[in-house]
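ESCALATION

Customer reports they have been waiting on this structure for their group meeting. Please prioritize. Original submission:
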Amino acid sequence: MTIARRSPPARATARTALAIAFATAALWRSALAGPPFLTDDPEPVDYHHSEFYVFATDDQTADGRSVALPAFEYNEGFWPQMQFHLVVPYAESLPRSGAIATGIGDVELGIKVRLLEETADRPQVGIFPMAELPTGSARAGLGNGQTWWRLPIWAQKTLGPWETYGGGGYVVNHAPGQRSYAFAGWLVQRDVGPKWTLGAEVFDQGADLVGGRGRTILNLGGYYAVTPTFDVLFSGGRSVAGAMHTVAYLGLYWTWGGASQYAAAASTAAPPRWSLARR
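Update from on-call: job pushed to the front of the queue and completed.
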């Protein structure tokens, strides 16, 4: 469902309104990645384990603002070293000129596969291909208008309380007004006591609009472990180069499932903070 709340100025042409819709759809897409960050990791959910997020995102530029509230993410370890991924957002497009619209956004489907386990001498490595289905209205700025693909490869290494991961890939998008582009990101985070984990990332992507500019975003965030199976996640940042974006994420996270190799290993160590597989 799409609800128009404000009529565009009479001088706005159909071409201008369509360009605004494309731009705000691009803002929404850039907000979805590895919660609470834009960079993702190669670690799938443990076999027979599940994750569920309720979250909100905000992305502001000079052209407008794109919000997801609420949005839902579900991840399932359906096979050893493999994870099913689903995101269903309720989106709001708020261009600086033009109609405000709300409704379902583009639904995201993906499969994360770990290709290499981490050892003392090498990082773990995985792929996480995703398809964005055109369930949101492109005309209203809530979606892309065509299915597009995100094809990344990620690596991760843990060093005591420190964890670092990143990588990059390519987006394939042939919708009108859009363009395909490369992206890359890297993140460093650290456990700060048994409850807090804090991190920082740099994320760069090329221009996703015809005639647009890429951007490099510096993002800070982390999560707080309320219980062993429930976390609060948060992040915020802005562009340091290219097109200006100010981004934010706030989410609630639950996990459940049978005992895993990680939980079994953690039972002999204290505290078991790192045992919560995420994304």
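Sent to customer with the following note: The chain has two helices and 14 strands.
Escalation resolved.
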